[in-house]
Amino acid sequence: MVRRPTRRKDDINVQNDGSLGINGSLHSRLCSPVFDCGSQLVPCSPRPPVSAQDEAGKGKTVLINKLHRLDPLEVDRVLEDGRDVAPVEPSEDDLIWVRVNPNGPVRGRQFRDAFKFQAGDDWLRNLSLVLKNRTSKNIVYVGLKLKFPQTKTEGPVVEQSFAYGRIPGAVAYNGSGEKLPQGSDRPILLAPGQQMTLSLAGHDSEIREGLERLQPFSSISLCYIRYDVYFEDGTAWWLGRYGAPDPAQPGKIIPMDSQYFPGPVHGLPGS
Fold first, then answer.
1. Domain-located, residue 132
2. Exposure b/e, 31-65, CB count within 10 A at least 16 = b
3. Is 92 left (phi over 0), alpha (psi -120 to 50) or beta?
4. Are 228 and 238 in contact (CB under 8 A)?
5. Residue 91 is part of which domain span?
6. Which of 30, 45, 93, 216 sees the fewest Cβ atoms within 10 Å?
7. Nearest CA to 73 among 84, 64, 62?
8. Number of domain units in the chain
9. Is residue 2 part of a domain?
10. Could you write out the DSSP letters of every residue in 163-205?
């Protein structure tokens, strides 16, 4: 399934020296907290789709950014309990959390897909994403980020991070040169054109524990998912921009050209 690419404006914090520091925002997103979830390289066969009406339970929504032509990964399929969920246009309620002015317009609808389905409280445990490597480089780390906008009413929006694979050791440093955790104990190698299924099965208890510190998990029905990537050569992708490690300063990532893509852009889906 290839969705029409859409350009989106990514808010990326560039330091005064032009670098994207690993110390701070990148480190917090990649390494605190990090849960090791199982991943597997699998062939993906079609299954009956699941809709928002054909399952018992309450309506759930998963938001994912639309495919951009420079993205390293394509979210090829979203599965709930092993069945495909088709993308639809997000509603205003789905995106009300990105509204800056309470009385202003809802922004970002054109940049995201909504995957809606009926499910019980085990919906995250049964959620899987099929990702495809669109680049010409090997991917060795995917940091999956789950944001729960409905927690904003009780305080800051809760975001939980899940590591698949390992950050290359040569770049696993913060801005002060201190060694950082590399992620999961289980390495991955997602080759160009290869697909990988990431599942949250067996880890819903960690998610629930964090959310229930603020409110009942049964009140959570919306999840926004994004990801970060590290390549085998230490190149990184996060917040819509590629960066290369600075050999002179471990932990410092230098932003690459905004149109850089590690592969033949015009020969890939979404170009």
1. yes
2. beebbebebeeeeeeeeeebebeebeeeebbbbbb
3. alpha
4. yes
5. 20-267
6. 45
7. 64
8. 1
9. no
10. EEEB--GGG-B-TTS-B---B-SS---B-TT-EEEEE-TT-HH
- The helix/strand/coil state of 76 is strand
Chain centroid to CA 64: 8
Helix (H, G, I), strand (E, B) or coil at 209: helix
pLDDT tens readout for residues 43-82: 444 444 544 444 345 899 999 999 998 999 999 999 999 9
What's the pLDDT tens digit per position in 154-195?
A: 667 889 999 999 999 988 988 788 888 888 878 999 999 999
Structure tokens at 221: 């029905």
Round to whole Å and give the CA distance between 10 and 239.
Answer: 6
Q: Provide the token pair at 182.
A: 């590399």
Query: Each residue of 131-165: b (16+ CB within 10 Å) or e?
Result: bbbbbebebbbbbbbbbbbbbeeeeeebbbbbbbb
Inter-residue contact 181 to 26 (CB < 8 Å): no
Residue 43: both structure tokens together: 């062939």
80 residue type, one letter = E
Query: Is residue 82 domain-resident?
Result: yes
For 113-124, how does the pLDDT look when each residue is reduced to its tens digit (9 = 90+)?
999 999 999 999
- Residue 86, token pair as written in the block: 């088709």
> Residue 193: inside a domain, yes or no?
yes
Amino acid at 73: L
